[in-house]
């Protein structure tokens, strides 16, 4: 009989991050995570497929935010205006907790398997955005270029956001990166 | 005693590609590849670490071409002028054999493990280019943005090049993608 546990997924995520940071990702088991969270392994598997997915559980929400931003952009928005809206949507979702983002990045940078999973996640996001732009009538190769450019900005801006001391919001850093890119590629 | 085999690596690569296409990557062994090439497994391992690396043996040459293009760019070239030179360098290397590139892409698209390896290769190229731009004095985040933009163009342009019927050179397709990107992101 499954007992309802308040905020089980949040507790598991926190426990996992603490253990990955303390003893390393490889050295942590699902049993360790559940124990630290005061829950059972069975409860863990109700929320996450494995210990890796604790770090990537936000991927679907990220795809959702991206699609919503594209859907809600004005009909006459240019592809790069849609990209700007997508950057805002992504920032609203992952820009809330810089300490968590930093901790997560340290764990990922230490583990090739996680770096690969992160690359796959971002590549997939680019494809989702490309297809969403196509669905709005943006033709190729513009849809692909705009989508890849958006992800380039996310990669560079996110890295900047977690590695600076100033307290700027992620949304501002992404917007600034977009402006810098515009200047950079101006012929 | 190792017998010298003329063009062993080329023969192994051709044999591997033929087998990956005929029976699939997963179903092909190093022994199969060596046999098809009329060589021994021992000879195979003199050239390639494993059957996957047959498809990625060009990665080092690609990094070399990228570094050379950056090194040889005029001192006063803008970051995007350096990027244009890098695109030419990459095209000169991988743009020679469209049939091979197409076959290779079909094999990669069919196998998640190979898609991951390709993503890692391209992400690594972006870092190499970013660092080479930094070494020229390009500051952050411009170095990262220019490097990610270059790889965005390679991804989109390469995909376009192998999926169109017209006989344009890869260098032309990449240059065109760069021009389209400039138009696209112009404020």
Automatic annotation (TrEMBL), chains A, B:
SUPFAM superfamilies according to UniProt: Homeodomain-like
Domain HTH tetR-type: 6-66
PROSITE patterns in the cross-refs: HTH_TETR_1 (PS01081), HTH_TETR_2 (PS50977)
DNA-binding region ranges: 29-48
GO MF: DNA-binding transcription factor activity; transcription cis-regulatory region binding
Keyword set, alphabetical order: DNA-binding, Transcription, Transcription regulation
PANTHER family for the chain: HTH-TYPE TRANSCRIPTIONAL REGULATOR RUTR, MYCOFACTOCIN BIOSYNTHESIS TRANSCRIPTIONAL REGULATOR MFTR-RELATED
Protein name: TetR family transcriptional regulator
């Amino acid at each position: 009989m499954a007992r309802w546990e308040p905020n089980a997924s949040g507790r598991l995520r926190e426990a996992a991050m603490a253990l990955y940071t303390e003893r390393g990702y490889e050295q942590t088991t699902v049993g360790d995570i559940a124990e630290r969270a005061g829950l059972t392994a069975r409860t863990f598997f109700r929320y996450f497929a494995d210990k890796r997915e604790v770090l990537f559980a936000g991927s679907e929400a990220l795809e959702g935010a991206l699609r919503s931003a594209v859907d809600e952009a004005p009909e006459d928005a240019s592809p790069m205006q849609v990209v700007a809206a997508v950057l805002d949507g992504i920032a609203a979702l992952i820009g809330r907790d810089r300490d968590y983002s930093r901790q997560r990045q340290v764990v990922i940078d230490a583990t090739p398997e996680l770096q690969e999973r992160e690359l796959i996640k971002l590549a997939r996001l680019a494809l989702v955005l490309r297809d969403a732009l196509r669905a709005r009538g943006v033709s190729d190769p513009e849809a692909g270029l705009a989508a890849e450019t958006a992800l380039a900005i996310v990669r560079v801006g996110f890295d900047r956001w977690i590695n600076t001391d100033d307290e700027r919001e992620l949304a501002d850093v992404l917007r600034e990166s977009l402006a810098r890119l515009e200047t950079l590629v101006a012929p």
